[in-house]
Amino acid sequence: MTTTFELDRQSLLVLDKILAGTTDQDLSRPTPCEGWNLAELLRHQVSENHAFAEAVRRGEAADWDAGRLGEHAYAAYAASVDDFLAAFGEEGALQRQLKIHENGPFVAEIAAAMHLVDTVVHGWDLAKTFGVPYEPVPEAVHAALAFAGMVPTDPGERAVSGAFGALVEVPEGADELDRLIGLLGRDPGWKLS
């Protein structure tokens, strides 16, 4: 069985193919993340990647919103991915105890699963943003859906945390990716307008 961290690494490669040609003009593109354009989504990902890396190295991160894109958004994103992969790839990293956003402590393997969910879902966001096909790693989608099943579905709890939009119902028999997207508050049918 492939580890969660390896599935995340493979999934980050999928995102890189979508983002590699990003230009400054692309940064104002709308995304499925309500209220965020591409620049804001990338800044969020840069913040999270660096914070996850800091948390696994130090036990917790000082700031989960410190990411900056600077003059080259893709370069900032790629550097944050490298930082995340280096930190979680260190010998024994997945067995370390850490906190994520005040939660924990828990073993870093759980943090890797949290990051995998983010990677798979934001990969879908990015593909929709650019209007390109999304071809996630099937085993990664399956693992992300299994872990995301622990996310509260109660609208009140979601409103308090602010991390996820309201649950979006998907048709009976929907594939795992659409179920994951709907579970985390996105409409699988979202299109650029």
UniProtKB/TrEMBL annotation:
Pfam family, one: MDMPI_N
InterPro entries: CHP03086, DinB/YfiT-like, Maleyloyr_isom, MDMPI_metal-binding
Domain named Mycothiol-dependent maleylpyruvate isomerase metal-binding: residues: 15-127
SUPFAM superfamilies listed in its UniProt record: DinB/YfiT-like putative metalloenzymes
Protein name in the entry: TIGR03086 family metal-binding protein
